[in-house]
Amino acid sequence: MLQLEKYNLAFDISPVPMLLVSGDGIIRQTNELLDKLFQYDDEELIGQNVDVLVPDEIKGHHHELRNAYFRTPSKRRMGQGRDLAGRTKYGDTVPLELGLDEVVIDGVQYALVVTLDIRQRIQQERQLRLAMDSTASAMIMVDSGGAIAFANHAAVDLFGYAESEMLGNKIEMLVPQEIRRVHPVYRDSFFTKNESRSMGGDADLYAQHRDGRRIPVEIALTPVETPNGRLVMSTIIDLSERRLVEQIVAKKSEELEQLNSELTQFAYSASHDLKAPLSSIAGLMSICMDDLEDGNVDEVRANLLKCMQIGERSAAKVEGVLEIARVGRDGEVRESVHFEPMIQDIWLDMTGANTAGIKLVLNLKHLDPLMLQAQTLKVVLENLLSNAIRYGDEKKDQHCVTITTEITDGSLSIDVYDNGVGISVANQAIVFDMFKRIDEKSGDGLGLALVKKQVERLGGDITLSSTEGEGTKFSLLIPLESES
Predict the structure, then answer these.
(1) Phi and psi at residue 147, in whole multiples of 5°?
(2) In which order are the strands placed within the sheet that holds 411-418?
């Protein structure tokens, strides 16, 4: 014991709890700090087996661990990165980290044990964990080997993994497949530079969800020094909602640009096309004033009728532009549509009883009724039939308009064909443009522009095929929905 007594001073002045254990597990020396840590009186532990300081759950095999250490002694730390605890005199459990070092005194082997009480550290880590779990941003800590050491609740929710599935695995499990192989190079580079920065620069950055989908993200990297070594904190912001808002804003901006273009075109049209009718109305009204003075009531009546007709046509043109502007902004409920009676009504409104030289052929291969936006479809068919009637070929014995329908892959296919004069190749490229008039029969150039916008609003598509002298066919494809 005399040789051991020379360690008393070192033990007494040590700022940390210490004890000396012999190979048979007997405690040979302690200091005051260790006695207080385990709630023993001064020197009360000397001569007792070190197992009195070991929790019950490992006491049964602790001697095997102790013997293994004395067979291959080395200087090392215990408890780092895993749970380790000691047992006080009154049965309380104290979380610990231990430092072990071999000491040989008079040829006898001992283990010098330095004990660190980490209760305060655990409490701080618990508070830090609560704080990080309360944040809206995903936070992940990664060690120098790329293994995930920590993931907060937001990270678990963002990536779809359980925390236990993430901890210990490489951070590359959250990286898109196309850069997964090179990502360790970027990771090692950051550990070398060791400075806070954002990832990706100006490039779009994506992470990968458990189900394989890509998540647009922003990531900030911060080096953190911990008792377990240097870690990197990744703060991850999910940009999915922001990108969705950006897409919506971009779409609205595109719609506004388109509307602005249409309004600009309308302004040009109004300055040219409406100037003439207004001048005509003004001229007719001047004539009416002269006729009133001369008592020519019949002439006044005839000219006023002309003014009304000119005004109605001009108002219809304005309404047409406004209707195009409203397309896609006003909702319309789908309803049950019976095609044949709807088409017959449109045909009767356009031709009246005067059907000489013109024939309507219906080749309806679908089964009525269908769930569609009836008013929108009616506007489309009215314009297409009006076009077909207007461009009849006087050289042919009979002008024929044929409507064919069928269901194709859940969509309604509608072909409106007429054997009229047809449309030249040069004009086919502009027939759907607003205010584009290909000839004197084109009216104000609004009808087919309206048709195209209405069909697109229905989620459908419209195409044109025509040959001069043979006729024209407009083909529509409109998605269907069940009544439910």
Answers:
(1) -80, 140
(2) 358-364, 399-408, 411-418, 471-479, 461-467
The pair phi, psi for residue 388, each rounded to 5°, is -60, -40
Structural Rg of the chain based on CA atoms: 44
Secondary structure (DSSP) of 236-275: EEE-HHHHHHHHHHHHHHHHHHHHHHHHHHHHHHHHHHTH
Handedness of CA 257, 261, 267, 270 (dihedral sign): negative
The mean per-residue pLDDT over the stretch 333-342 comes to: 87
pLDDT single digits (tens) 216-256: 998 888 888 876 678 888 888 888 888 888 889 988 888 78
- Let me know: does 129 contact 112? Beta carbons within 8 Å: no
Cα–Cα distance for residue pair 430/447, rounded to 1 Å:
12
372 sits in which H/E element: strand 370-372
- The candidate with the shortest Cα–Cα distance to 201, out of 220, 173, 180, 225, is 220
Helices and strands counted in the chain (H then E) = 16, 19
Q: Which two tokens stand for residue 84?
A: 């380790």
| Model pLDDT, residue 413 | 94
Q: Which residues contact 324 (CB under 8 A, 6 or more apart)?
A: 262, 434, 446, 449, 450, 453
Most confident region among 123-127, 289-293, 344-348, 445-449 by mean pLDDT: 289-293
